[in-house]
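User: Show me a protein chain along with its predicted structure.
Assistant: Here is one chain, sequence first, then structure tokens.
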Amino acid sequence: MDILARLTRTPLLADGAMGTLLYAHGVDFDECFDALNLSRPAVVAEIHRDYARAGADVIETNTFGANAFKLAEHRLRDQVAEINRRGVQLAREAARAIRPDVWIAGSVGPLGRQLAPLGSVKPEEAYAAFAEQIHALAEAGADLIILETFSDLSEIEQALRAAKAVCNVPVIAHMTFNRDDRTLLGSTPADVAVRLRSLGADVVGANCSTGPRRMLDVVSAMRRALDKETTRPPSPADETPTLPPLLSAMPNAGFPEMRGERVMYPATPEYFAEYARRFLDAGVRLVGGCCGTTPDHIRAMRRAVDAWLAQSSQAGTRQPIRVEEPQPEAAPVATVAAAFQPTRLAQALANREFVITVEVEPPKSNDTVQVEETAHMLREAGATVLDISDLPMARLRMSALAVAHRVQERASVETVLHFPVRGRNLLRVQGDLLAAHALNIRNVFVVMGDPTAIGDYPQAYDHHDIVPTGLAQLIKGKLNQGVDSAGSSIGRPCAFFVGVAVNLTPADLDKEAGLLRKKIDSGADFALSQPVFDADKARAFIEHYQAKYGPLQLPILAGLLPLASVRHAEFLRNEVPGMFVPDALVERLQAVGKKTRTEGARIALETLTALRGIVSGVYIIPAFGRYDVIANLIRDIRDV
């Protein structure tokens, strides 16, 4: 009996997360998990056995990212077929040693690159990459193909087309949904279900996303949409009977949390067992788990599925499908923004993780390769997020928005978009922000920006319609509530996380404290400070603010600029407004001769150590583009 015939008769249980368990086995997230099929097959095989022992009917191969695009990032492009074939072999030999009747599902994930017109990958290139991977999986003996964690319908369409062309095994097609029950590109569960079914998917559903509760809403909406489609009168030309729509659900174990250096998922096995029953009641025929789920979750779900089957058997028929009532088409405007997942930066600050961010300057060209390589290096060194500056010193550079998007897409590290108001009218401000949100750039640092008079285009337009404080208020009070500055609807609310500037060592304590208070009242979520060279002076400012306005709740990332030379220090203290560099630091640099960069890094680390406890993180500004120096400094900070 093939798996589709089995699913029409009785539900099946799939396995859980692979990456979560590989991480628990000591594999770093930066490693190529798929290549472990070749380099550490025993670890992969043991995970498959654990899921088979837990009672999984379907075991997925460790090939989620084993496509040409993702493997090329690890210089493994020529091993696509070998890695996929080995993935099937490992799963089959390991799992079937425990359960001979288990099905092996070839796992296929997104390419990691967006398709045109949003990205640079042509549809035919995507099709070729999927065809190559799926052919290897099917040729190696996979019983079915599972397309999972897709957020773009156009991309999963190419994967489905490729699967139908190169193999004859059933295809499960999963997409992933945000907390607003839509994909990243705005597709609804109903749209997804009907479209995937029309493209030839044998089973449709969702995986990853958030936790079981939200996914139950998603698959219920899919069920309603598919039921409507199947109740329509058949076309006279349609003579071939089709199987009824089959649904699948594999949620995460809740929303991930950072606990120290570990990523933790809150949903317990018992909670998953309860929702396994609810999924089956909603008509789902294949249930399993995604990120954060373990053999313990699958074992608990096995008991729940067996109990459900026993109850159905005692009733003499399958349990009737209970579909939840439709949810309102649109949630109230004030609450929709909360449906977006918090940004990585927001999570880190909420969990009191010490945040490290580095300012990265865009290139003076249309080539982002060097920036992407820098971002990779800084991420590996331990940076939490990266700040992308916008036309620093009013010099011509690529748009920070484009660079932020490239860094997030190709270097897999979240960004903070610097967003100066200078030179932008109110119309452009709002249009650019909507564009940023559409590209999933939701950390924005609002700032005045450098005057064009100091840059290489002094004649350029320099006016503005709104100041940074007003922009913070517009974002939090308008855009994040679903309306523009005029009060007109923008459709769905935004969910920006807004940063503002602060000087921790100002000449006028009262003035700076009052300005900071105004920014907080405008809705600021965090602050980046100008470079700090005197920790005692910074501490005095914070104490002054709290004496005047009460406890300072706003997370502050202290600016850190490693001094490169005596001349560098003298320039900062004499020519940069608001900068305070003590005489003692200049004297230290003078005393070390040619070792000023080493001494500058040591000064920066000492300053940060003195600020620990009163700031939430550090915002590092490189001197003269020496990101290698910054990478070493990050490692030192992580060791403190």
